[in-house]
Amino acid sequence: MTEDMQLKALDRLIGTWHVTGGAEGTVTYRWLDGGFFLVQDVDLVQEGQPVKGVEMIGRERPFGADKPSEDIKSRYYDSNGNTLDYIYELEGDTLTIWGLEKGSPAYYRGTFSADGDTVTGAWVYPGGGGYQSDMTRVK
Length: 139
Hints:
Layout: H1 5-8, E1 15-21, E2 23-31, E3 37-46, E4 49-58, E5 72-78, E6 83-91, E7 94-99, E8 107-112, E9 118-124, E10 130-137
Antiparallel strand pairs: 1-2, 1-10, 2-3, 3-4, 4-5, 5-6, 6-7, 7-8, 8-9, 9-10
């Protein structure tokens, strides 16, 4: 199987990040053995409530499928019982995380700094909602 360069580009997320803005805490990204899925471990406080979660990021390849999905998809599970689906895109230094599908009115868009150690961005929600969400690499 040839290397998936779009998925591999998310390698710049690997490590632990301090998150500030509408949610505060840490997230850690790591590769699952085999390199087909990126795992995000979440430990945040949002609106005064602790949120712990895990997200699996990669291409879907359902049982019996000949090839993986075109989009890099994820499913997020958290300690409040939420399951959320996203699509990840990285173009240059801009990371976009679409809620459910590309072009969704709910998305995160952030920009990596030149040294790759910060991402500055915001979550945008339909109707004008959302919040600032920045990350600084801690290790």
